[in-house]
Amino acid sequence: MSLVLDPAAQDLLFREAHTANTFTDEPVTEEQVQAIYDLVKFGPTAFNQSPLRITLVRSPEARERLVRHMSEGNQPKTAAAPLVAILSADNEFHEELPQLLPHFPQAKDAFFAERPVRERAAAMNAALQAAYFIIGVRAAGLAAGPMTGGDLAGIQKEFLDDDHIPLMIVNIGRPGENAWFPRSPRLAIEQVVTTV
Fold this sequence. Notes:
- It is a single chain.
- The chain has 9 helices and 4 strands.
- It is an alpha+beta fold.
- α1 packs across α7 (115-139) and α2 (30-40) crosses α7 (115-139).
- The chain starts with 6 loop residues before the first helix and ends with a helix.
């Protein structure tokens, strides 16, 4: 094996990890959320733009409002997960660039002055960060249940604003009984990788 990462960590993050569909009622603590963020914030984004924004849904009232917007199949697990995160892309991320890119603060206006450019950059880079977030949840010994099935426009209106576009909802917690569906097949390397 040519991977440096310990095989147990490989299993935790990838091979044995599945999308969770049920959860125990063990809470996800603020300390766990902090540890996840402290790890995944180092994942790369273009210009270090870091456009991902995370809205944690903890209160019963907010949970009820969110569940109404989820597709029917996603409602029970979203209602039962100990913690739910709304992951969104901040289209005004460029306002933070002077802090995030101190050696090139003019990038804010040189590259991201126009809203359509920011929207494309935010969507791509926040999606990268969403993947890092899922891996970070797994690194914390928790299970993630990422979903896009629901009324994302309704979720935006209910929880966000016009500058924050929801990408996905992630249920988070310890896996419960029958949490996993059987693993689906994956593509072979020759179906994915081309050498030119």
